[in-house]
Amino acid sequence: MAKELKQLTKRADDYSQWFNDLVVKADLAEQAPVRGCMIIKPYGYAIWEKMQAALDKAFKKTGVQNAYFPLLIPKSFFAREAEHVKGFAKESAVVTHYRLKTSDDGKDIIVDPEAKLEEELIIRPTSETMIWHTYKNWINSYRDLPILCNQWCNVMRWEMRTRPFLRTSEFLWQEGHTAHATKEEAEAKAVEMLHVYADFAEKVMAVPVVRGVKSETERFAGALNTYTIEAMMQDGKALQSGTSHFLGQNFAKSFDVTFLNKENKPEYVWATSWGVSTRLMGALIMTHSDDNGLVLPPALAPIQVVIVPIYKGEEQLKAISDKLQPVINELEELGVSVKYDDSDNKRPGFKFADYELKGVPVRLVMGGRDLESNTIEIMRRDTLEKESVSFDGIVERVKNLLKDIQDNIYKKALTYRDEHIFECDNYDEFKERVKKGGFFLCPWDGTAETEAKIKEDTQATIRCVPLNIEQNVEGKVDMVTGKPAKNLVIIARAY
């Protein structure tokens, strides 16, 4: 059984299949009966809950409050913002009727043709239109601003090609929507939320990210600017892991949302929106995990420490359990999640393989000999190193080890990422090298035509204009056209 648990496709053989195998075998999710949708299983959802809790706390530190808005949006709302509807039209699922009935012969359930809606409803692909319709009722004066709202919800985007967590027709996310009195305040909020996302990715998920600005072509539909965090997966592809949008006054004008300023003159409101989704689960899996299964940062692991007793008979089990219970109590008092697995329906080898597959950061094992010698075996999931240590001081050792694992897997991912960022200004060379993955820092002439050619020739896209790299383009030329460069950009193939 232990071997059966570990039968994952090797990353080197088929990275995509390895990912799919791991999602299923680590009990994260499974396919739903609805095309393109997934069932998130309890273990996978427990990770998402930890992400949600950490992000929610970070949002509220910035003054954001949670609210909830309807799932169904009148179609007429979408018609008010042309760029927005253009961006989501092909992915929108539409509700046309409100009732079913039994067929005349009683054998089938059919849509009642007499129950057609007067106005069709869109299952939300995103909520800007609903929220700005609502904000019109909330905003009259500058005293009503800013409004800083977020909602945790599900959305529907009818994707043609789907993969668990990375791209599904229905997914979970949060979407923040803020309203401001000035352009400067709104832009500052969009940038602030970008850094909230980046800090969460790096400090909680242990995933290094590039912070940047999207090209005009890659912006969110209806935005004046889109800020992004881009993570590199182990196959060298990029994964857009969070975006924050400066929406200007587009939605305020579309929904006629104005306020009286301090001079008692009407102005349109300035807006932002920002979101991350269960796609972060995909980033977590593909950044850290290995051929043995998940590797989870302790900050997000549902079980941070598993303790497995190896015993002969109830008497020995009781002695080991009595020895370990104070350790369990102390760890839990420190906020560490512990599972004591003394079940007798699985062999120890099966348990070890299962917890390894599920990415539990620390495993403690105590048997009869350990009980006699006052020792315990400790194993760390990130390196698979194990050693027998003194039982005395084990709580402090585990506490320090959890911190070390969190730091180590971030450093490992950061080293990999940095070793796979390449400067390139030769297009022929780029076209060959990009096939093997990596982030390419290249001069760009700023035109959509050049961007489209790169995508057509290589399937790579401009991920962002990075914010942490000095944009010194003096004397540099675009590698495709030879024209003077306007920006240095990160180009990569992406999920």
Structural class: alpha+beta
Q: Would you report the number of β strands?
A: 25
Radius of gyration: 26 Å
Molecular shape? globular
The order of strands across the largest sheet is 3-9-10-16-13-12-11-24-25-23-22
How would you characterize the overall build of this protein?
With 495 residues, the protein is an alpha+beta fold. Helix content is 35%, strand content 27%. The chain has 15 helices and 25 strands. The chain has helices at 2-5, 15-25, 42-61, 75-78, 82-88, 128-138, 183-203, 250-254, 279-288, 313-333, 348-357, 368-373, 394-419, 427-433, 448-458, and strands at 29-31, 38-40, 65-66, 72-74, 93-97, 100-102, 109-111, 116-123, 147-156, 170-180, 209-213, 225-232, 238-248, 258-260, 266-268, 270-277, 305-309, 338-340, 362-366, 375-380, 386-390, 421-423, 439-444, 461-466, 487-492. An 11-stranded mixed β-sheet has the order 3-9-10-16-13-12-11-24-25-23-22, sandwiched between helices. Strands 18-17-19-20-21 form a 5-stranded mixed β-sheet, sandwiched between helices. A 3-stranded antiparallel β-sheet has the order 4-8-5. Strand 12 (225-232) and strand 13 form a beta hairpin. Helix 3 (42-61) packs across helix 7 (183-203). The longest helix is centred in the C-terminal third of the chain and has 26 residues, at 394-419. The two termini are 34 Å apart.
